[in-house]
Design brief:
The chain contains twelve helices and eleven strands. With about 270 residues, it is α/β, with parallel strands linked by helices. The relative contact order is 0.19. Bound molecules: D-glutamic acid.
Length: about 270
C-alpha cells in the first residue's frame, strides 16, 4: 500500500505547483499527474461540465491504483465540495488546505481570495474559512484572464499587461485591507511577484497547490501511508493535449524542466471509450 503512487490532477499545468511542493516534502513518493490540457480552461465552464470532467479525471487517475488523490485545481475543488475520500481512497482538493492555512496566518481576520469565475461563484473558500473562523471577512474576486495569460507565458511583474490586470483584479481586495490572500487557482503563483508587489509586504500570499501538498503529507502521516522506500520518488506526467507543448509550458511555468516521464493520453482513453 505504501508504495502506491499519489495521484494529482488539474485542468492543465497549474497543479504542478502542488507536485513541486510534494517532491520537496515527500521525495520518496511516486506521483502520477494528469493535466487535462486538451480541455482547459475549466474555470469558465458550468458546474455540471466541471463535475463531469472531474469524474473522468478521477477515474483515469484511479486506473493507476493510487493511495491518495489530490484535485490540484481550485475550480474542481470548489465544485466538488469537502470530499474526504473516494471509495475509501483519501482525497483532498485545495480549498480546505488553503482555508486552514489562511485562518492560521491572518491577524486581522480579513482574508482575500482570488480564483476562476467558477471558483468565486461557488463561494467555496468563504464557506471553508467560516467553518473554521465564523467571524472572518472573506473578500473574493474572479480573475478570468489570468489563466490564459499564464498559459501564454505573460507573467512577468514588469510586463505592462500583467501590471494592469493585477491592479484591476486586486484593487477591490486590497481596498478591504486583507492581511492574507489565497491564490485560489493553482495557476496564480505564476503571478506571485506581481501580486506581492501590488499587495505590499503586510499581506501573506498563500499558494493553494502548495497548501494541498502540506495537507496531504499530514493525511498520509496520520494514516501511516507514507512510502519509506528510497526506490520511489518518480513522477509520471500525463497530458491530454500535445506533450511537447506541455513540457514547454511547464518550463516557462516552473522555470525548470519537468523531472519525470511525460506521456500522452487521448480524450477517448480519458473518458474510457
Ligand atoms: N488550475 C485551475 C484552477 O485552479 C484553473 C485553470 C482553469 O480554468 O482550468 O482553478
Amino acid at each position: 500500500m505504501n508504495d502506491q503512487a499519489i495521484g494529482i490532477f488539474d485542468s492543465g499545468i497549474g497543479g504542478l505547483t502542488c507536485v513541486k511542493e510534494m517532491n520537496r516534502l515527500l521525495p520518496h513518493e511516486n506521483i502520477v499527474y494528469f493535466g487535462d490540457t486538451a480541455r482547459i480552461p475549466y474555470g469558465t465552464k458550468s458546474r455540471e461540465t466541471v463535475l463531469q470532467y472531474a469524474k473522468q479525471d478521477i477515474d483515469f487517475i484511479r486506473r493507476h491504483s493510487v493511495k491518495m488523490i489530490i484535485a490540484a485545481c481550485g475550480t474542481v475543488s470548489s465544485v466538488m465540495g469537502a470530499v474526504k475520500d473516494i471509495d475509501g481512497i483519501p482525497f483532498t482538493g485545495v480549498v480546505t488546505p488553503a482555508a486552514q492555512a489562511a485562518c492560521a496566518a491572518t491577524r486581522n481576520g480579513r482574508i482575500g481570495v482570488i480564483g476562476t469565475p467558477a471558483t468565486i461563484r461557488s463561494g467555496s473558500y468563504g464557506r471553508a474559512i467560516r467553518t473554521i473562523r465564523s467571524d472572518a471577512a472573506v473578500i473574493g474576486n474572479a480573475c478570468p484572464l489570468f489563466v490564459t495569460m499564464a498559459e501564454n507565458g505573460v507573467t512577468s511583474k514588469d510586463d505592462i499587461v500583467v501590471k494592469e490586470m493585477v491592479a484591476r483584479y486586486l484593487a477591490p481586495v486590497k481596498k478591504e485591507k486583507v492581511d492574507v490572500l489565497i491564490l485560489g487557482c493553482t495557476h496564480y503563483p505564476m503571478f506571485y511577484d506581481a501580486i506581492a508587489e501590488y499587495m505590499g509586504s503586510g499581506v501573506t500570499l498563500l499558494s493553494s497547490g502548495a497548501e494541498a501538498a502540506k495537507y496531504a503529507l499530514n493525511v498520509l502521516t496520520a494514516k501511516n501511508m507514507l512510502s519509506d522506500s528510497e526506490e520511489n520518488g518518480k513522477n509520471i506526467f500525463y497530458a491530454s493535449d500535445d506533450t511537447a507543448m506541455f513540457e514547454e509550458n511547464t518550463r516557462v511555468f516552473l522555470g525548470e524542466d519537468l523531472v519525470g516521464e511525460v506521456r500522452s493520453v487521448s480524450t477517448e482513453e480519458l473518458i474510457g471509450r
